[in-house]
Amino acid sequence: MKLRALAFVVLALAAACGVEDVDLKNELGKDAGTDSSCGLPSCGAADTTCSSRSACCSGLCEPESQERKCQPFCKPLGAQCDQASDCCSLGCSQESHCTTIVCAVTGAGCKEDVDCCSSHCDNGSCIAEETTCRRTAEGCTQASDCCSGVCDPTSKRCDLGPGPCRPPLAPCTGDADCCAGACLANAQGISVCASSCFAEGAPCTGAGDCCTGVCVQNRCAPSSCEP
């Protein structure tokens, strides 16, 4: 759809809702915290309390102390990171870049905090966070261990759980989980979404992340959205 056509739709929505002044750029890029009274989608921004992935713009709802909160959009391979959960691949290297190596679970060996899914390394071993449930990629033995309510029976790690499609290198349980590509085992034997680019609707940090070559408001958009 061309920009002129999109502008017409936005103006029509504004008229239907009785809005006098419309910021076109703001309307076209609405995402977090939008007003859904006109049929526009709404979702939780980072740090918003959540109970499922579907409630968050980023599709990420992870534990922080005694509650779960929406996380920022995950970062693609090679992007700068501070901890494993910053990355779509759930792996951050000691050089602070998102890597294909998924973080280590509680009890596994580590050298630095960044090696662990919990971001806590003590005396050469990953230690658990003080949360009521376990975050994505942490070790599990049953569904109730995980905040998502899903423990992958093959990897014995907490899965992201039901919700939006997953970007490349994110852990998965089947092809249907992935925004693009297939769900295949990586070098660690952990099934991840295997694709070199993000499909339409997936989180992105730049045009190069998207198969369409267009990233709008941190989401891969159709090529027709180009100015």
Structure, described:
The protein is mainly beta and 227 residues long. 9% of the residues lie in helices and 12% in strands. It has 2 helices and 10 strands. It has a two-stranded antiparallel ribbon. Strands 3-4 form a two-stranded antiparallel ribbon. The protein is globular, with a radius of gyration of 19 Å. The N terminus is likely disordered.
**Element pattern in H and E:** HHEEEEEEEEEE
* Total beta strand runs: 10
Q: Give me the side-by-side strand order of the main sheet.
A: 1-2
Distance between the termini: 10 Å
Q: Could you say which structural class the secondary elements and strand pairing correspond to?
A: mainly beta
How many helices in DSSP terms? 2
User: How many strands, what sense, and barrel or not for the largest sheet?
Assistant: 2 strands, antiparallel
| Overall spatial form | globular
Helix content: under 10%
- Unreliable stretches covering 5 or more consecutive residues: 1-40
Radius of gyration from the alpha-carbon trace, in angstroms: 19 Å
